[in-house]
Design goal:
The complex is a heterodimer.
Chain A (H helix, E strand, L loop, with lengths): L5 H8 L6 E2 L6 E5 L4 H10 L7 E9 L7 E9 L16 E9 L9 E3 L9 H11 L2 E3 L40 H20 L4 H4 L1
Parallel strand pairs in A: 2-5, 6-7
Antiparallel strand pairs in A: 1-2, 3-4, 4-5
Chain B lengths: L15 E5 L11 E7 L2 E8 L7 H5 L7 H6 L6 H16 L5 H30 L2 H22 L8 E2 L2 E2 L7 H23 L3 H7 L7 H6 L5 H6 L5 H4 L20 H25 L18 H6 L1 H12 L7 E4 L2 E3 L2 E9 L5 E7 L1 H7 L1 H5 L4 H11 L3 H5 L1
Antiparallel strand pairs in B: 1-2, 2-3, 4-5, 6-8, 7-8, 8-9
Classes of the chains: A alpha/beta, B alpha+beta.
Chain lengths: ~210, ~400
């Protein structure tokens, strides 16, 4: 069975995708326009000739200084005979596809935005949160867009290329850790007194004998 | 005064929120689960991750390509060989390197031994959490021997860094084949022993059958692959569907179950260990006593020491590789491997320099924790521990 060309079928079914092939060493790679992303994903999942039932991973890449700055990569897999999509009469040949889309950086104070594909593959939920957390790319239509790996009050997005590497950040401590010098001196005196008292105490009888 | 249901009218009926973890012994590391309970039934569960986030992916961007290997081995700390193997395969794909057969067979052997070692830790901890404490003693006894094999090849038990870009660190030590053959011969009867303890054990069956079930469609939609998918009846194994390391030349089966509950995941993993032993035996037969242990491309792998000490060119190459590293052509690659927990692979992006522009691990545990809510809601709180154990999550893999 000849493997049908994804690009031709995709451009025929979703013309807004403007899909183009990207040279790659390992698997078929397609770049699509971000506006049509959800339609493209739904088509690739549901079309009986492709049946990309598994969204293997979602990856964010910061391409600084190139523009558009951010690239979101989706790894799709069709498992062949191992899994037939519901509604399809035959299984599609096993193949992998790398789907890419690029999103431009937003002006200061705003976040770059792209459509979420959680409605197509629920497994995209946490990876998209991870990209939101580490790259600061927001996903429109995501059910629960909040940081996942970093703490909620973390400033900046660590995997961006312009995030400084050689810095030390203090951990956030929710209570006061400094004490006034008088209190410190009193505390030291108290513990010394306690130690002296313990040393002055007579030992137990069996030990002294 | 009582109502019809028997509860006093003044009794407060509300759900109870319980924090499980991040320091709970059976959450496999530092996983926090906020569970809402109605009596003993789980109404909702929210996993919180990130307690073990060490930013390895960011650190790797500051390192040269070959310096990344010890870092990535620490991600999924129960499967170090599979981390470094998938990283090496991706980089080698981008470099266009072909490995000699002997390197491939050694890599296959180590990957399968590591699957045994990882599954043994899973079996031990999973058994112990459900109450079969003695299984842990037995499983860790065998795992100790596998760690000894790691020590034999690399001098390091947990993170051997034995797989390198362009081949292996050094040749196999003397007596390696015999050690592995002896281990394999002794291991199969041990597997029977574990199965005798658990497979027909009525307590084990009561705790695991029908618990944490998922449908076929949900399993794939939530990105669960590996033993989790095979337990539902999806015979997807990267080694068969998208072969790497010439796995198509090995004779082995993909064990599949049908129910998709905790018990079936147990059955699948036990059967997988037997298949791994089969593959190990075949690989061991193919490894010749002498032969190449790297691809011999001196742009990537340092020349052998005897040449470094006697030849000027080899010395220069040695210093080049250890000081400025090697460059990888611009592009990206992703070669998935079948890790102990499912499809596992590094997406690497190179900008043509001697340091990676971006590496990203496809972590099967990450997706398993994401789907945890789906598996435990509606069940009993006592089953949460059984389900977490069956997903075999490693928090180092989840948080990276």
């Amino acid at each position: 069975m000849a493997t049908p060309s994804i690009i031709e079928a995709l451009n025929a079914a979703v013309p807004a995708a403007r899909a183009e092939a990207v040279p790659s060493v390992d698997m078929e790679t397609i770049l699509v326009a971000p506006e049509a992303l959800v339609d493209v994903c739904r088509f690739l999942r549901d079309d009986p000739a492709f049946q990309f039932s598994l969204l293997s991973d979602v990856i964010g890449v910061d391409r600084l200084p190139e523009t558009p700055r951010f690239e979101i990569t989706y790894h799709l897999a069709c498992l062949g005979d191992a899994f037939r999509a519901p509604g399809a009469s035959t299984s599609a040949p096993p193949r992998r596809l790398r789907l890419k889309t690029r999103v431009a950086d937003a002006p200061e104070g705003e976040q770059p935005r792209i459509d979420s594909i959680v409605s197509v593959w629920p497994s995209a939920n946490w990876p998209e949160r991870e990209i939101f957390d580490l790259f600061g790319v927001a996903f429109t239509g995501h059910p629960e867009l909040r940081p996942i790996l970093m703490t909620d009050d973390w400033e900046g997005h660590p995997l961006r290329k312009d995030y400084p590497v050689q810095i030390r950040k203090c951990g956030h401590i929710p209570w006061e850790i400094e004490m006034p010098p008088e209190q410190f001196a009193a505390s030291v005196a108290a513990s010394r007194k306690q130690a002296a008292e313990a040393a002055a105490k007579p030992r137990r009888e069996e030990e002294t004998q | 005064m009582t109502t019809v249901s028997g509860a006093p009218a003044s009794l407060r009926q509300e759900t109870l929120t319980v924090n499980m973890g991040p320091q709970h012994p059976s959450t496999h590391g530092v996983l926090n689960l906020v569970i809402e309970l109605d009596g003993e039934t789980i109404v909702s569960a929210k996993p919180t991750i990130g307690f073990l986030h060490t930013g390895i992916e960011k650190t790797a961007e500051q390192k040269k390509w070959q310096q990344v290997i010890p870092l990535v081995e620490r991600m999924d700390y129960l499967g170090p060989h599979s981390n470094s193997l998938s990283f090496c395969l991706s980089v080698e794909k981008l470099l266009g390197l072909e490995m000699p057969d002997r390197v491939i067979w050694i890599r296959v052997l180590l990957a399968e031994l590591q699957r045994l070692s990882s599954h043994l830790v899973w079996l031990g901890t999973h058994g112990m959490e459900i109450g079969a404490v003695s299984v842990m003693m037995y499983a860790f006894r065998e795992r100790e021997q596998l760690l000894n094999i790691n020590e034999l090849i690399a001098g390091f038990r947990m993170f051997p860094s034995y797989m390198r870009i362009g081949g292996l660190r050094e040749d196999l030590p003397r007596g390696f084949k015999q050690t592995v053959a002896e281990f394999l011969d002794a291991f199969v009867p041990k597997l029977d022993e574990y199965e005798k303890l658990l497979t027909a054990n009525p307590i084990w069956i009561k705790r695991t059958k029908g618990v944490g079930r998922l449908s076929k469609e949900d399993t794939l939609a939530w990105g669960l692959v590996g033993p989790m998918a095979r337990a539902v009846g999806i015979p997807y194994d990267v080694r068969k569907t998208f072969p790497y390391l010439k796995y198509e030349t090995f004779d082995f089966d993909v064990p599949v179950a049908s129910e998709g509950d905790v018990y079936d995941r147990y059955l699948v993993k036990m059967a997988e260990m037997r298949q791994s032993v089969r593959i190990c035996r075949q690989a061991l037969e193919r490894i010749t006593p002498t032969g190449p242990y790297d691809c011999g491309d001196f742009r990537i792998v340092p020349p052998p020491k005897d040449r470094v000490y006697t030849e000027m060119e080899a010395l220069i190459q040695h210093f080049l590789i250890y000081s400025q590293g090697f460059t990888v052509p611009k592009g990206e690659a992703y070669v998935p491997v079948e890790g102990p927990r499912g499809e596992h692979g590094f997406h690497i992006v190179s900008d043509g320099s001697n340091r990676p522009a971006r590496i990203k691990l496809r972590a099967p545990s990450f997706y398993a924790v994401q789907a945890l809510e789906k598996m435990i809601v509606g069940g009993l709180i006592a089953d949460v521990i059984a389900v977490i154990g069956s997903t075999d999550v490693v928090m180092g893999d989840v948080d990276r």
